[in-house]
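name: query_chain
kind: protein
chains: 1
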Amino acid sequence: MCSGSFAKCLGITLIPLAILSVLCNILLFFPGGSVVSQNDHITKEVWYFGGIMGSGVLMIFPALVFLGLKNNDCCGCCGNESCGKRFAMFTSIIFAGVGVLGAGYSFIVSTVAIHNGPTCLYNNGTDSTWANPFNNGNYLENHTLWDYCKEPEGIVTWHLTLFSMLLVMSLLQAVICGIQVINGLIGSICGDCCGCCGSTDGAV
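structure:
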């Protein structure tokens, strides 16, 4: 498979991952599937926009670049066009790096959010307050602590599910962009389609 075609496959994979990441981040603004009355009732890591900016917006740029590399596919990768096509593959490495940074940001935000747990209404011993009762990550092993959260209903499951999805998708995006770095290096050195020149010359 030519490097341009392979890059297109990677770009096609990044698009749905970016869309799903944005949707997950948006859903986190509705804890437990409900609309909250105050912004401070939403977990603070949601406001870091890891899914919207990191795995979403920043991932669109490399995805579009990867998709565009298909135009450099066989068998127009010979002659005077070779330098331009190799430069395009080299440029894709830079955008892949941007994708890795975006995915890394989303991964870090998701990891911190999972460790800290959600913001919810709980009883602190004297009265009920909106805060984060799980900031040391102990709730991950002790599920009985989930009962501390009275509102929104099912907030812990909601929080863990969506941030875990963001965590997994950011990992996948980082791997895909990392693969394109290698693919881009090969395309930059060998050309977009190694071996096309010989087949084209033979056909003339």
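note: The CA atoms of residues 4 and 70 lie 5 Å apart.
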